[in-house]
Each structure stands twice: as structure tokens, then as C-alpha cells.
Amino acid sequence: MSSAHLAGSALAALTVLAGCASDESAAERVDRCAERFLERAAPEAADMRAYARRAYCEPFDASGWVHEDGTLAIEAFTESGDEECGMETPDGGSRTVPCESLVPARRPRRIDCALLDLVRRAEVQTYLAQLTRAIECEDGTRLDHLGAR
Q1: Going by DSSP bridges, is the β-strand pair 109-111/84-88 parallel, antiparallel, or unpaired?
Q2: What torsion, rounded to 10 degrees, do the Cα atoms 43, 8, 49, 71 define?
Q3: Which of 4, 6, 17, 35 is buried deepest, with most CB atoms within 10 A?
Q4: pTM score, two decimals?
Q5: Does 63 score more than 90 pLDDT?
């Protein structure tokens, strides 16, 4: 994942307010989580560690969504995403509509899968198996390859 993709994912997917890790175990989980984000970022993106920690890992941990090994629980994806999209109106204005309504039902819904690659593989595969609508990753990642190992 490129640093631009990581930053874009943050702006597009997160609506969670930053929390703080108070005990040593939480701090360790958050550190491991931030490292996982950076493993997928470009090498020059090391300065993004603080951003990943503050914008993703601390809020996710405060919600109970970071495992001891730093992988994320599936709720980090399912509960923190933005399911509303902006749509232009005929008069030149805009309004908010459910993102799902913008994709014809016969076509797979394209999603940003970057966060799913940080969730434990078994949780991702269980989540995908429960979906009633076909999805595909925006970046072309195969669904059976998603999830942290």
C-alpha cells in the first residue's frame, strides 16, 4: 500500500474520534498495529507512524478492535467506514445518499480493501462469506488474498 493510498484510506474511511491508550498492554497493541500499517506503506513513509497510531490504532484500540499481535478485528472495517457518498443534484448542488445506491445491483461493489489486509485473515474470510452482494477491491486485490497472516 502506498503512503498516498494509506492517507487516502484515512480520509475516506474513518469517522472515528481519536482515543488514547492508557495501560501498557494497550500501548503495546497500538504500537504493533501502527507497525503493521507501516509495513504496507512506502519505506519513505516512516513519518506516518504517528499518524497511523493516532488516526487508526488508538481509536480502534479504544473500541476494543486491536488484537494483542496488532492485527485488527473485523469491526475496525465494518464499524468505522463511511457508508454515505456525495451525489450531484440536477440543480448543481449535492446531497448525501447511501453509497450502495450508486452501484447497480448486478455489478460488484468496489471497496477500498487496504484496511481489510490488516484484519486477521480468518475474520476477513468469515465476513466476506456473509456478504449478500458481490464486492471487489478497488486495487484489484483478490478477495481470497485479503487478511493479515
Answers
A1: unpaired
A2: -100
A3: 6
A4: 0.56
A5: yes
Give me the long-range contacts of 137-140 (CB less than 8 A, separation at least 24). 137/110, 137/111, 137/112, 137/113, 138/110, 138/111, 138/112, 138/113, 139/5, 139/112, 139/113, 139/114
Each residue's pLDDT tens digit, 13-27: 332 323 334 567 888
Q: Closest by alpha carbon to 103, among 147, 138, 139?
A: 138
Max avg pLDDT among 19-28, 30-39, 119-128, 136-145 = 119-128
Q: Residue 21, SS3?
A: coil
- Please check whether residue 59 is in contact with residue 17, taking contact to mean a CB–CB distance below 8 angstroms: yes
Q: Are 76 and 39 within 8 A, CB to CB?
A: no
Cβ–Cβ under 8 Å, residues 72 and 113: no
End-to-end alpha carbon distance in the chain: 16
**How many Cβ atoms are within 10 Å of 31's Cβ, its own excluded?**
15
